[in-house]
Specification:
The chain has 200 residues and is an alpha+beta fold. Helices cover 49% and strands 14% of the residues. The chain folds into two domains: 65 residues, no CATH class; 114 residues, no CATH class. The protein has a three-stranded antiparallel β-sheet. A hairpin with a 5-residue loop joins strand 1 and strand 2. Helix 4 crosses helix 5. 30% of the residues are buried.
Length: 200
């Protein structure tokens, strides 16, 4: 499997044959059977040394789809611990979106941070809440500007803000957020059906 990365040391993109791709559902990170070497630095690279390019994200998504089955939505109570596995993450996102939809807020992406704090059982000072909101909403707006159209779906917009809040709280790494967001984007229609079912 060929995936394109960007080396954080030399800031150059390169394609690499990563071999087979698996996803660790505990760590929410991809694992490759081949080692990754940057041809410009001539060094072996770990995930912390790399970013996925836009093409690389598409390639990783395709690899994940080839290795995944249809998600199953089990009953998921409010839990302070992070969900375990992709299916539980999709359920958690659906439950969080349903929580946000109970408000009168027109743009639900604004509610990503407070819903995240509620579902993770965290109590912060006003200053800390503002900082988390600033990081999460800032990431959302930057992504919307860079990739017009991606956030037109209200569920996708909320999901990004919700997951970005976990990153702002140091509950997840950027790589983990990217993986879960990719899985969520591939299953937006299933998440929406789950949310609609909750409303009945």
């Amino acid at each position: 499997m060929i995936i394109e990365f960007e080396c954080l040391l030399c800031n150059k993109p390169f394609a690499c044959d990563v071999g087979s791709v698996t996803i660790d559902e505990q760590e929410m990170l991809p694992s490759f059977s081949n080692k990754i070497y940057c041809p410009f630095c001539c060094n072996e690279k770990g995930l912390d040394d790399l970013n996925l390019t836009e093409l690389g994200q598409s390639q990783l998504t395709r690899a994940m789809n080839e290795n995944s089955s249809s998600p199953s939505f089990a009953h998921h109570d409010h839990e302070t611990d992070l969900p375990d596995g992709f299916d539980n993450w999709l359920t958690d996102i659906g439950d969080a979106y349903a929580d946000a939809a109970e408000s009168e807020e027109e743009d639900l992406f604004h509610l990503g941070p407070p819903v995240c704090l509620k579902r993770r059982g965290l109590t912060l000072t006003e200053e800390q809440r503002e900082e988390v909101t600033e990081v999460a909403i800032g990431s959302y707006l930057a992504t919307k500007e860079k990739h017009p159209g991606v956030m037109d779906n209200p569920l996708a917009a909320f999901t990004f803000s919700y997951l970005a809040s976990h990153f702002a709280l140091d509950l997840m790494t950027k790589e983990q957020v990217d993986i879960i967001m990719t899985v969520a984007e591939e299953n937006l229609s299933q998440i929406q059906k789950y949310v609609d079912h909750l409303g009945h």
